[in-house]
Design goal:
alpha+beta; eight-stranded antiparallel sheet; single chain; 19 helices
């Protein structure tokens, strides 16, 4: 009689075939997931949809922070540009609009109050971010000449000059310019070569508009009667820093609140003809704002380049009181990409996460791709489990089987990374983050599933049961509360229900809610039967575990309040 092998050759072939199929399926799963991620690289589709449905308020400057948030959330570049154009045009239109009339007095009677409320309800719905984006697609770019002229007009209309550094202060430039001589309020001059003069101004800006105005080192232009012009370059009147300012500091924009006065500005010119020594004080006293091209005129540089426009965006974002809450919601959406979001009801209210809302169905093509991915993980886990179980029956130590299982999982992970090209780019597209995502979301849980299968079949072997018998027994006694249930029967049927629910959750949402409701009855009856079979010591252990879980949930609830 020929000697029998500890492990039949046919079983080895089947195990290797299942392992190879699992490796190939794992690589295909990673590739399919990369393709779905390329369709939605941000993973914030639900959050972006809620942002688009958010109602905008009447203050365009206050809503401008949405441009930066929309960009950070991964919105398409054309939508971000359209929203930026619309908000900037609305901001300029509000700056150039005439002052609004005083609000109507409160109603005199209950009938007037009711009539006013009914008229308010009849008003159209407020504009949303989506409608602003649609309108912004037809607007000219902010750097176009026509828009820059409108911006300069709002600058001329909203700002006025106030000469001098303020009470009790002296300009910083007088420390080094000892030869400067005061020739008028806030005006100094010093002789230069060839009969020319150096001219210095100290002034403050006052915002006369009803909206905040940005100030970023403007120019001051004076025009004389003969048409000659003199340009002053202005900067904040402060002591020179010990270190050169950074780019962010050099181009920082200061928002001047309505009715507020800016910090002192120091303005200077290159050597100018000597007649400007008499003309500059006269022009400054004659007119404080530009009228028909005469008098001093402030020239804004906020829209000179895309870089200046970016710093304007930073200043408007920092001034918005809602920006911090919106940033926290965006971080939450990034941490939980599967969460559902709904737009706020009030103006510029951050989106709310719907904790108990079911995920919408993403289409049958997406469901089919998710089904292939889930079955690939299942096949890979079963292949590794069958291989390990066969090796254990052949007498291989459990440590060797564990190391081999981990090595096989690492090989599948390396194959998936190679299929993805190793990751590319920066941020979350970096190879490090790509590898962490693949391992923590796919291959890590798969290896835990292999470990769980080994533990489950250890229980089944101890009670001489098969997994199919536990499933059949669980469904057969789904409404029976008196029959005792062993440990293997409980965990075998629970693993079956968990696999079914995960399949529905990942591939057929929102049908997972209905399947979960259908599985709830047999799982509850199974738990009751299992409790009847426990000893007092086992019940005490479960009670302590439940108390610990409840304490953790309570701490989480208190932290979120």
């Amino acid at each position: 009689m020929p000697p029998t092998l500890p492990l039949p050759l046919a079983r080895i072939r089947i195990t290797l075939l299942a392992l190879l199929l699992g490796l190939a399926a794992g690589a295909a799963f990673a590739a399919d997931d990369a393709a779905s991620h390329s369709r939605d690289p941000s993973g914030n589709a639900a959050f972006l949809a809620a942002v688009r449905d958010t109602p905008l308020g009447p203050d365009a400057a206050q809503a401008y922070f949405l441009v930066s948030l929309f960009r950070r959330a991964g919105a398409p570049a054309d939508e971000v540009a359209a929203l930026q154009r619309e908000l900037l045009h609305a901001y300029v239109a509000q700056l150039n609009a005439p002052p609004q009339a005083a609000p109507a007095p409160p109603p005199a009677s209950a009938w007037d109050s009711l009539r006013r409320r009914l008229s308010d309800r009849a008003q159209p719905a407020p504009e949303t971010v989506a409608t602003a984006i649609a309108r912004g697609r037809t607007r000219p770019a902010p750097l176009d000449a026509s828009f820059r002229e409108a911006w300069q007009a709002s600058f001329d209309q909203g700002l006025s000059l106030r000469l001098g550094p303020g009470e009790g202060r002296s300009p910083v430039f007088l420390i080094d310019g000892r030869d400067l001589e005061a020739i008028g309020p806030g005006t100094w001059a010093a002789p230069s070569a060839n009969g020319q003069v150096w001219l210095r101004l100290s002034l403050r800006l006052v915002n006369n508009s009803a909206r905040p105005l940005p100030v970023q080192r403007p120019e001051l232009r004076l025009v004389a009667e003969n048409g000659a012009s003199l340009v002053f370059q202005c900067d904040w009147d402060r002591a020179p820093p010990l270190r050169p300012p950074s780019e962010m500091q050099a181009h920082a924009v200061t928002l001047l609140a309505p009715g507020a006065e800016s910090a002192p500005l120091a303005c200077g010119t290159a050597p100018a003809p000597g007649y400007w020594r008499e003309r500059v004080p006269a022009l400054l006293l004659a007119a404080r704002t530009s009228e028909a091209g005469a008098g001093p005129r402030l020239i804004s540089h906020d829209l000179d380049s895309a870089r200046r426009l970016f710093h304007l965006e930073l200043a408007l974002t920092e001034s918005a009181p809602q920006a911090a809450d919106w940033g926290q919601r965006l971080q939450l959406a990034r941490r939980e990409p599967g969460s559902q979001w709904t737009a706020g009801e009030r103006l510029l209210e951050p989106p709310e996460r719907r904790r108990w809302a079911s995920a919408p169905h993403q289409g049958w093509q997406s469901s089919l791709a998710a089904f292939k991915a889930f079955m690939a993980m299942t096949v890979l886990a079963l292949g590794l489990f069958v291989a390990g179980r066969g090796l254990r029956r052949a007498g291989v130590p459990s440590v060797v089987v564990g190391v081999g299982t981990l090595a096989a999982g690492a090989g599948a992970f390396a194959l998936a990374m190679a299929q993805l090209g190793g990751g590319s780019g920066t941020g979350y597209g970096h190879p490090l983050w790509t590898g962490i995502a693949l391992w923590s979301v796919y291959f890590g849980p798969m290896l835990f599933a292999v470990l769980g299968l080994h533990w489950l079949h250890k229980l089944l072997d101890a009670e001489d049961l098969s997994w199919w018998e536990t499933v059949a027994t669980g469904w057969r006694h789904a409404a029976n509360l008196t029959r005792p249930t062993s440990r293997a029967e409980f965990w075998g049927f629970l693993a079956h229900c968990t696999w079914l629910w995960m399949l529905a959750r990942l591939c057929a949402a929102p049908l997972d809610r209905w399947l979960g409701a259908a599985l709830l009855l047999p799982v509850l009856t199974l738990a009751v039967r299992r409790l009847h079979s426990l000893t007092r010591d086992e019940l005490a252990e479960i009670g302590l575990t439940v108390i610990g879980v409840l304490l953790l949930v309570l701490l989480q609830v208190v932290e979120n309040i």
